[in-house]
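## retry 2 of 3
previous attempt timed out at serialization; input unchanged, resubmitting
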Amino acid sequence: MTNTGIEERAYWLAWSQISGIGPILLQRLKSHFTSLEVAWNASKGELIKVEGLGSQTLQKVVEQRSQIHPQELLIKHQEINPNFWTPADPEYPQVLKEIPTPPSILYYRGVIDIQENLGKKLLVGIVGTRQPTEYGIKWTQQISTALTKHGFTIVSGMAEGIDTASHTAALKAGGRTIAVVGTGVDVIYPYKNRELYKEILASGLVISEYPAKTTPNRNNFPRRNRIIAGLSRAILVMEAPLKSGALITATYANEFGRDVYALPGRVDDQPSQGCLKLISQGAGLISQQLHELLTVLGAIPQIDMDTTITQTIDDKIFNKIDPQISKISNLSPELQQVINTLTLDILPFDLIVQKTNMDAGFVSSCLLELELMGLVSQLPGMRYQLIQH
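## retry succeeded, writing output
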């Protein structure tokens, strides 16, 4: 690295220590002054011209930077945190530079793959609930394995449940996986994942924007989800209730222009409610579009399973009903009530809600399940039609 790069690295670190200066303000400072070293030495009058730098934050900058010597700070920081990148480093992941809030410091442990950092190897995020069903675990393992065998790196958060299943399956398939944690990279959380942590370090990476010895803090985990989304070309949500960190990751992914896919489940399964919500908002169906996803990312899978992903997921959703047998007689009372309102004529969503006298959100979920069952067709403009068999 050039002397200029080392200097700028020290100033990324120094600025990150100033309270009130987050990723967005750091980007504005760099853009305004062209370098963070110039910004560090700027006068109060020059700093006030930076958008978003209010008088209170400016006062903190003036007070705190007088107590920080960037080069000395860098030397001391490296004693406890030997491995980290800043945006001034050529190894810093290029895809994170695309997002509006890239981490100013990114700590890591494990094995670096420079192709990943340069954006030449594709990363896919797999996230979901800490309390998944057997169905969620099964398909997390299947899909993580399939992606790994086709050259993708799996990104997740090393939490219990779906995260653990995705990391473990990737490692068993002989691939790489990256764990983005909400603690220091030297802190194992949850501790029951200590063996998984060691396995990830042996062939993959553990990364964090928090320095060494940072213990679990509930406020850190939603923030780390933006890094999972930022690193990933696409986010796959396997199972998630309506209040779930996985939905936060999906929201970040949408903001960053990443693709979002969700695994459909039964309308009355609590762990699937978040996924059904994402699908109703336009997320891709994993059951129908995993092949398309891999094609878009440059790989066509030849998944060796007894049945295709679509067929097997459909079996779960439809309670293994033979597709040649009429499904209508096996519907739940709620689904039966919705389908009874439909005809071969096209009906708008509002009219279906009115006829069923049910909650609009519940009707939407029922229609989605009926559509997955091949009984109902959705047309543009939220209009629906019964499919004739």
